[in-house]
Specification:
Blueprint (H helix, E strand, L loop, with lengths): L23 H13 L3 E2 L9 H12 L2 E4 L4 E3 H17 L7 E6 L3 H13 L2 E6 L4 H11 L3 E4 L7 H9 L3 E4 L21 E7 L7 E6 H15 L6 E4 L7 H7 L7 E4 L2 H4 L2 H11 L3 E4 L1 H10 L13 E4 L6 H10 L4 E6 L9 E4 L11 E5 L3 E8 L5 E3 L5 E8 L5 E2 L3 H7 E3 L9 E12 L10 E7 L3 E4 L2 E4 H9 L17
Parallel strand pairs: 2-11, 4-5, 4-6, 6-7, 10-11, 12-13, 13-14
Antiparallel strand pairs: 1-17, 2-3, 8-9, 9-20, 14-15, 15-16, 16-23, 17-18, 17-19, 19-22, 21-22, 22-23, 24-25
Helix pairs in contact: 2-3, 3-4, 5-6, 10-11, 11-12
Amino acid sequence: MNARGPVGERLLARDGLPVLAVPPAEVERARELTARHGMSGFREVDLADPVIARVERVAAERDRPAVTDARRALSYAELAAEARRIAALLEREGVRPGEVVGVGGARCASVISAFLAIELVGALYVPADETWPAGRVRDVLGQAGASLLVTVDEGESAPALLEGAGEAGCRVVRVQEAAGCAPWEGPARLESLDQPRYVLFTSGSTGRPKGAVVEHQGMINHLYAKIVDLELTGADVVAQTAPLGFDISVWQMLCPLLIGGRVDVIGDEVGHDPVAFARAVDGQGISIVELVPTMVRHLLDDLADAPAGSLAALRWMIATGEELPTELSRRWLAAMPHARLLNAYGPTECSDDVTHHTVTAGDLELLRLPIGVPIINSQLYVLRREDDDTWSACDLDETGELFVGGVCVGRGYLGDPERTRDAFCQDPFEATPTGRLYRTGDAVRLLPPGAGGDPRPTLQYLGRVDRQVKISGVRMELGEIEAVLQRHPGVAAAAVVVHEYPA
């Protein structure tokens, strides 16, 4: 098991990161191309404001519904009070600033209260999903160094969750125990903007999960990016549909709370049934939904014969987690013209999404949809690795690998300096607050202005860099061939591989 204690002691310092091999002339060229093509998105945002502080201000100004789930509804004042009681429970259990606290169980309003409580005491949140096997729970809590797991289930928690916590050496407390605690007092403990805020575990190629650490500034910046690009207001209701172990669950839980909106938590029983989900969207007046494209397809399939006016309150459908096919977008725009479709892209290591693109009819002429332009306060670089292992900047219509800079870039992998060095490097281009670049491993192309009707240059995702092949000296993207095949109405999915035959 990894050592317990403050996370900062188990993170690689920026000076310990490798230096990206970019010749000085290419550094200047990359800066110039990034600026010219709009791959830097700057906006003044107050990143020092904890979410709980905003919740309490909304409660004081005009209390209103904040979070609903299948069992109960919490106003902003009730949410803040519950968070402060849970914070008192955490302190009673010996949680200190900089330590990791696990939150486990089914999606519900209490998860949001627990997140805000962890923010109050200056600790880090790490989720443990109720559907995980015991081994996954053990690995995540053990690698995170969590000494405490807060369960949020109304009844008995899943046996695998409790078993995994026990194997990880975690004490378990029920969130209901906080009901008898006096509210924790004082402001949220925020020592600096780069203070680690949460740890989310991604799959590792070795089979060992990687704990990506996201800073406070990256998380808050992403929340405001959603507010800006989706034009969110206090009238919006966001569906919280993502499993707790997925990065999108964080913005779904927290973003509406910054502007006086409401979070509606939808459990798996409803979320996995497209018809029931559509009824919930209509019944709760949900205006923002985020799903993987596979679920968007199921939703459209099952609503083909639904009454006119279904999903009438929906303003945005956000597609993420998988590549959004052009043909699926065509179906959505035809069936739901009142609800705009956003193609979102981003890695967990960079606080979730780093690009947004609103899909239009003009995009449907493209082989593959754009993933868009950078969110606020992020810089994107398309770089090509040369034969001498140095990197050069790509211009319009050139294929390269996507690197991400700016406040969105996370701290690295918890307790894993080797894999941190493989994916993160020192930023040679800008003096950003993090000073780090994240290497995505994704191949992209910068589309020229006018492609798909967008007047700006936009990024187009092409697949993983390790799927680029060379045949008879010609570089080919296997993902592009798959995209062509999937345009045929008789092909639902396609996979392309290369076979080598002896001469």
